[in-house]
Specification:
The protein is 45% helix and 18% strand. The protein is α/β, with parallel strands linked by helices. The chain has 2 domains: 3-195, inorganic pyrophosphatase (n-terminal core) (Alpha-Beta Complex), CATH 3.90.1640.30; 216-316, Roll (Diaminopimelate Epimerase, Chain A, domain 1), CATH 3.10.310.40.
Amino acid sequence: MKTVILTHSDADGMCSGAILKSAFPKAHVFFTKPVSLLDDLRHTRADQILISDMALNKRDAPEILEEMKNKRIAFYCDEHPHPDNIRPDDLKRLCDVYLHQEGVSSSEIAYQYFQNRIPRERVWVALYGAIADYAGETPFVKERLRNWDIRALYFEVSTLVLGIKMESFNNYDAKREIVKLMAKGGNPSDIFGLVNAAKAAVSKEFDIYKMIKKRAESSGKLGYVLDLPYFGFRGPSALFAATVTKKPIGISAHTRRGHIDLTIRCRESIYPLHKLAEKAAMKSGGSGGGIPEAAGARIPKKQFDTFLKEANALLKAGI
């Protein structure tokens, strides 16, 4: 039986994917993202598909549900808010197992479901994903942190989150090897070169901050920076754009062939970034989403100014 794991390529996606691979050792790991999930589902040939840490963007959600009717979705866990143009019950009916809970990580959800069929120590991987995904304050995480050396756990989280920013590890093949290792009980620091890459990433972030101080611009409540030569540092760049412009929200924008990828972060937790990204992107002819603390969007190449205008209008209206 061919099993395919579809998961996000960030730290929580990698960790939840590792937990799934620990439960299904022969499964093939394939990285996808919300804007390409529909196409990837169409081209996935498998007897069963496991999905983790994968938001449904509003634009594609109805078609994704239609495509899921043609597949066996054996397991789907996610923490992202549902788009309002689908019904959660319809999604649940299309999966053998569908688990959804906002405010936690997919790594935590996956571990709690499969914990009785994988080694107890895989809880480390669940904790890595949770902490990396801004979900380290849940009762599950707090309780488990009491059982282990928190300093060692945070070292591993930092090694993973920072290391995969560097070019040598910011590709699907390298990330797939990290997932395989964690699925077998290894830790991120066991990957040759990843610790050094994480250290290099820290130094790079300081350099990027200095660059953003010179290049960042602002519009309303938004600080933004365009086309920095460091795609792997989108999250910190967005935060730094907010910091240096003294705005609550920051955007790191990267121009691609026919579109612009936006990464959005905030210095204040009062703004639901996932809603901001989704609504502003749709009004700009694109799609977006995420979680309240971190979001992203993809819009047509010439619509950045429209996105800024729509985002500020949404913020003024209370979103």
